[in-house]
Amino acid sequence: MTRTRQRTLLAIGALAVALTTPLTGCVTAFFPQGGGSGGVSTPAPVADDLAEDLVPFYEQQLAWESCEGDGLECATVTAPMDWENPADGDIELSIVRQRAMGGDPIGSLLMNPGGPGASGVDLVADSVDFAAGEPLQRDFDIVGFDPRGVERSTPVQCLDAEGMDAYLYDLPTAEKGSDAWIAEIEEGGAEFGEACAENTGESLEFVTTVNAARDLDLLRAVLGDDQLYYLGYSYGTFLGATYAELYPEHAGRLVLDGAIDPSASIADVNVAQSMGFESALAAYLEDCLASSECPFDGTVDEAKQDIAALLASVEQSPLPASDGRQLGTSTLVTAIIYPLYSAASWPYLSQMFEQVMSGDPTYAFYFADQYNGRDEDGEYLNNQTEAFSAYNCRDYTFDPDVSTMRANAEELAELAPVIGPYMGYGDIGCSAWPYTEQADRDEIHAEGAAPIMVVGTTNDPATPYQWAEALADQLESGFLVTYEGEGHTAYNKGSDCVNAAVEAFLVDGTVPEEGLTCQ
């Protein structure tokens, strides 16, 4: 039995960024290496009202060691597996630090690249200049962390590489949307969930954003900071907002870039993302058709019809790859979506379309593999897919009613005629998750928190601009910075205006003029 899945939600992380040269391979995973001690961190004073059984966690001292990478230090933090019952077991949280270049840090700036499931350790270790501009590196210790369940932090573990290939790339045998097709997808989701429970163990139950936010406060404390300084991208905005809701008294300067609306249901998310990527596809086509190297002719609408026809063709006749995999619509949609995260990647999207139209799936699999964290040897470099499922299956409420899913799928197809038909039925994937208790999505107000910056991009496909507007409006102390442009997230993406606003706020606490709009 194949472990096929149906798409639900799209990974929303800042590291889905511009591709460099196609077919050059993936970023090498970062791991700590043995070495001399980098010193010991003194934790911040423990609050008087902290529960007695949590005091040992908050008073632990971190033993830093040198890491692979110039000037980086690594440490491991012990956290309760279950924050409600700390005596029931521990988990480990992996962190990496680059010391402030100026030598006198304001504090630690914690970074989260999104996902859920993306590694903050990788972000800082491999891409610190992308993550933080020079003023931030000068005035802060830059700290990346893997949230619980992610990569090096007591990771969610589900399938081996062969199993992941089957889950992500195998093709359903029944007609899409039929009862048999739904049963097949349900069975695949159940098998995946069972494998996650078996191979992860009891910690899987506690992989939730609320618990990750509690871990974040622990990191703040053991790093010696009274206030949290935080830069969260994409899903990281939900983690940061959740932190501010739980710990408003410790919410220092928070920047939430590429925001999620905490009150949005899974159905709302599917609609917004489908329409967001449909809009990004149209923007790509408008740009493409203005060049001499575009694989499409005619108008944007005509080109969209060509892409819809291409997807339908691949659905009927999948394209074989040299490694034995077959390119179906789910993988092709992933390959289309991935370059739409950044306008700088659009030329590579054109190359991919040209190849697929000629019957060659090489670039399509390359893009899908990058999105899924799979290298050219068929190995998975991280556990982003497993962690993504673990968080979302607990953070959202899913409706397994087939008639509701069919109605939602029809709506998606109408609202986003190219992308939408392949975004429905997402509730199936979590319908058989081992832990059935799910969070109720609601607004986040973070009453009593210091000012919180929300950054939104007007044509962000993964986290649509209306989500940034919603979050800034919900937060009692939230304010919105708008970037008029394309792509996912805005900081350090080429806008001097955005960069200056973010850096002045984090370094000096400067709140920009109301309604700041950047280009």
UniProtKB/TrEMBL annotation:
Identify the residues that the record assigns to the Peptidase S33 tripeptidyl aminopeptidase-like C-terminal domain, covering every copy: 416-518
Say if the entry is tagged with keyword Signal. Answer: yes
**Top-level taxon:** Bacteria
**Alphabetized Pfam families for the sequence:** Abhydrolase_4
InterPro entries (UniProt xref): AB_hydrolase_fold (IPR029058), Pept_S33_TAP-like_C (IPR013595), Serine_prot/Carboxylest_S33 (IPR051601)
**Annotated GO MF terms:** hydrolase activity
- Give UniProt keywords alphabetically: Hydrolase, Signal
Protein name (record):
Alpha/beta hydrolase
Q: Which organism is it from?
A: Labedella phragmitis
